[in-house]
Design brief:
The complex is a heterodimer of chains A (about 450) and B (about 325). Chain A has about 450 residues and is an alpha/beta fold. Chain A folds into two domains: about 210 residues, Response regulator (Rossmann fold, 3-Layer(aba) Sandwich); about 170 residues, Rossmann fold. Chain A is globular, with a radius of gyration of 23 Å. The relative contact order of chain A is 0.13. Chain A contains 16 helices and 15 strands. In chain A, strands 7-6-8-9-10-14-15 form a seven-stranded mixed β-sheet, sandwiched between helices. The chains are: A alpha/beta (about 450), B mainly alpha (about 325). At the A-B interface, helix 1, strand 2, helix 3, helix 4 and helix 7 of A face helix 1, helix 2, helix 6, helix 10 and strand 2 of B.
Chain lengths: ~450, ~325
């Protein structure tokens, strides 16, 4: 071994040189590929393209970006978004997978900004990715729009200058869920929860339970279950729930887990004993169809999909998306569309004359922006003008046997100020403190 | 021979240092993370030589990372040297304790037990909402003995910190390999009983290796945490351990430098695959590993040895 070690050593220098040399070789080639300034706007789009979160969130988000960017470049988006691309400059997009360790996500973010010289990054589904990318984006002064991640921590920990999120954070999902539940089923005495054992599930349950505590302190929690993420098998939980007298089951399950749970609980008729309240259920209705129990309370992380208000823009978006991908857009596609429209408006607001606006100008124009998109009106009202709030809606699921299509009926809309904390207030503390200042 | 060795190692270090001033930031930050991970791989090589494969190295990696995040957050310590030291030592401390148990197992039992231990930490972190559960925590921006750089300067400063720590680790581990305890790794792998009959305690030898590899993994985790700026429980998930084993196979256990070369190659290939095939990058990465196993069963390190053999033959 000593011999091996000695012999191998001189080769190292050679190898390091080759590796660094080859890396160095990449940089100039990349630089040549960039178009002359002003002609195009380069966007990095990051979303789950592989792995378990790809099918429910990543791919609809990516598709939403693809079709939206195509329509923008063709100048086909209805007014007031009808300028070609971003203020006349065509959009060039680069898609990157969000899968991998945090180190990997951050490295790829840096690569987009520093190697590929993108003008802005739009993306990220996982709250972990968003939290990790935020300080790097601030440090690199790179304009970043998060589209799907839900954690309110991003703008609560400290004010940000270059990071924006048009999509409202996850607080309103569970506050509105509690309000809808109490409006529709005022006679319940207890409820249970089934949420995945990771940040999303824990936060969803904490917000929901806290909101229920404030709105109806007499209603008690019976079972709070936290199975493993992507467990896929819920026999034990269903048995436990069947012994419960709760009238409602809160769940933030999505996609594979939600589908597996629905199939398994139907065999044992759990939904006949308690109403299921699925905060992200909308993303699954087009796949589950008549398998989704009628009477399930459905949320869509905002007024998205079938919960979106009827407007020309919404009908247009539904049509181009369904025509291309053969399925109606679910909420991640809406969130992506809204994020891109917000960025487009900010860019156009910042652009004066022919020159490309600099990042600081776009960020300044983005702050506090307000507009109407496919999911209704949104306003970047909290998080120092960086975090969007919008109205949200909940409804009850029904499979229409005549038209053979899923339906959401009994929709109740909640104004943005009713379900979101006011500016400068932590979401967590706002709910626990009795949701002061809520205008319903 | 030894002199040639040192010259080569020194020039490699110098080349990497010079590169720190010349290359664009994104390469520097990629290399920073690659070299930090290289330390973990070096720790795996220490055990690999004794025939032990750990599928739980992420335990120490994660310990190092969380130690940095928590001390920075609650203790208000910002000095990078101190943070990295504490990160490494806390991992080594844990490994010293569980080493009494682990050092008694070999082969698949060792691999599985180490994996189980790392998953315990994962489970604990996921359950701890005050530490952000799976979302994790941000890490403070470090200072260097009172020097507080920002942006580009911070990236370069971290790169040099990682470079210095890696060079120190490489020198010390190299010395360890040449020492009696280090040289006994192969005999331990081949025939434990014989080593015992030589009057050496195999379990103590292995216990030492465990602590060394944990110290390296903890230091790597601490450096990676500073470079990434965020820690989350996935650092302790078994796929993270698997990735380190992957890099070890790619690098080969032949030499100290292979760990860093392999890690840099892995990060570069992955980043390249991400850019080239956003939806199929795993296929490219898997093919690289397959081809390495088929054509370079001893890893990338063996390529260096082959080059050297060629040179040796020409000038005996």
């Amino acid at each position: 071994m000593m011999m091996l070690l000695r012999r191998s050593a001189p080769g190292h220098g050679y190898f390091w040189f080759v590796l660094f040399g080859s890396l160095l070789g990449v940089a100039p080639t990349q630089a040549q590929n960039t178009a002359p300034p002003g002609a195009t706007v380069k966007l990095g789009i990051v979303s789950f393209l592989t792995g378990p979160a790809a099918a429910p969130f990543g791919i609809p988000g990516r598709n939403g970006a693809e079709i939206m960017i195509e329509a923008m470049n063709a100048g086909k988006v209805p007014a007031p978004f009808d300028k070609v691309g971003f203020g006349g400059s065509t959009i060039e997009s680069k898609y990157i997978d969000e899968t991998g360790s945090t180190a990997n996500v951050v490295t790829e973010f840096r690569n987009l900004v520093q190697r590929d010289q993108v003008d802005a990054v739009v993306g990220y589904v996982s709250s972990g990715s968003c939290l990790a990318v935020t300080p790097v984006a601030e440090e690199l002064k790179a304009l970043t729009v998060f589209y799907d991640c839900g954690t309110p921590r991003i703008f609560e920990e400290r004010p940000r200058a270059y990071v924006f999120r048009v999509s409202p954070h996850a607080t309103m999902d569970n506050v509105a869920a509690a309000r809808y539940l109490l409006a529709k089923k005022s006679d319940i005495t207890s409820y249970s929860g089934l949420n995945q054992n990771y940040a999303w599930g824990q936060d969803s349950w904490r917000d929901f339970a806290a909101a229920m505590q404030v709105l109806a302190p007499k209603i008690v929690v019976d079972k709070a279950l936290f199975p493993k993420l992507f467990a896929g098998e819920y026999g034990t939980e269903i048995s436990t729930l069947l012994t419960s007298k709760s009238q409602v089951l809160h769940t933030s399950f999505y996609d594979g887990d939600l589908e597996a749970f629905i199939y398994q609980e139907q065999a044992r008729a759990l939904d006949k004993r308690m109403t299921i309240l699925a905060t992200t259920g909308e993303a699954a209705i087009w796949r589950l169809r008549d398998k989704m129990p009628s009477g399930t309370i459905i949320g869509a992380r905002g007024a998205n999909g079938p919960l979106a208000p009827d407007s020309e823009l919404n009908r247009w978006f539904q049509k181009i998306y369904s025509d291309r991908y053969g399925t109606p857009p679910t909420y991640p596609a809406y969130q992506m569309a809204m994020s891109l429209l917000g960025l487009k408006l900010a860019y156009e607001k910042a652009k004066t004359g022919e020159a490309k606006p600099i990042t600081d100008q776009v960020a300044a124009a983005f702050k506090g922006i307000e507009f109407e998109g496919p999911s209704g009106s949104v306003k970047l009202a909290i998080g120092d003008g960086h975090q969007g709030i919008s109205e949200t809606a909940y409804g009850t699921y029904r499979f229409n046997k005549e038209t053979n299509e899923p339906e959401i009926v009994d929709i109740v809309r909640f104004p943005a100020e009713c379900v979101n904390p006011p500016a400068g207030v932590n979401a967590d503390g706002w709910i626990k403190g009795g949701m002061k200042g809520a205008k319903c | 021979m030894v002199r040639g060795d040192r010259i080569a190692a020194g020039s490699a270090f110098l080349a990497a240092a010079v590169a720190g001033f010349m290359l664009p930031d994104w390469i520097i930050s990629l290399a920073t993370i690659a070299f930090a991970n290289g330390l973990v791989v070096l720790g795996l090589i220490v055990m690999w030589r004794a025939g032990l494969v750990s599928f739980g190295q992420a335990l120490y990696y994660c310990m190092g990372g969380y130690a940095v995040a928590l001390i920075g957050r609650w203790g208000g310590v910002t000095d990078a040297f101190l943070l990295v030291l504490v990160g490494g030592l806390s991992a080594a401390g844990i490994s010293f304790v569980i080493g009494f148990l682990l050092a008694r197992y070999r082969e698949i039992f060792f691999a599985m037990l180490s994996l189980a231990l790392s998953m315990i930490l994962y489970g604990l972190l996921v359950k701890t909402e005050s530490l952000g559960s799976t979302d994790g925590l941000n890490v403070i921006v470090p200072t260097f003995l009172g020097y507080a750089p920002h942006q580009e300067k911070l990236i370069v400063a971290l790169y040099f910190l990682v470079l210095v720590v890696c060079a120190t680790a490489a020198l010390l581990v190299g010395a360890y390999f040449r020492s009696l305890a280090g040289a006994l790794a192969i005999p331990v792998r081949d025939n434990e009983l014989r080593v015992e009959f030589l009057g050496m305690s195999v379990s103590r030898l292995i216990h030492t290796k465990l602590v060394i590899s944990a110290l390296l993994a903890g230091t790597g985790g601490a450096l990676a945490a500073l470079a990434v700026g965020h820690v989350d429980p996935n650092m302790s998930y078994w796929t993270t351990s698997g990735e380190f084993v992957f890099i070890t196979i790619l690098a080969g256990a032949g030499s100290v430098g292979a760990a860093f070369v392999g890690s840099l190659a892995f990060e570069s290939v992955r980043s390249f695959a991400f850019a080239m095939l956003p939806q199929l990058w795993e296929i490219l990465l898997g093919s690289v590993l397959l081809l390495t196993i088929l054509f370079l069963p001893q890893g990338l390190g063996s390529l260096i040895e082959r080059l050297h053999w060629g040179r040796e033959a020409k000038a005996p």
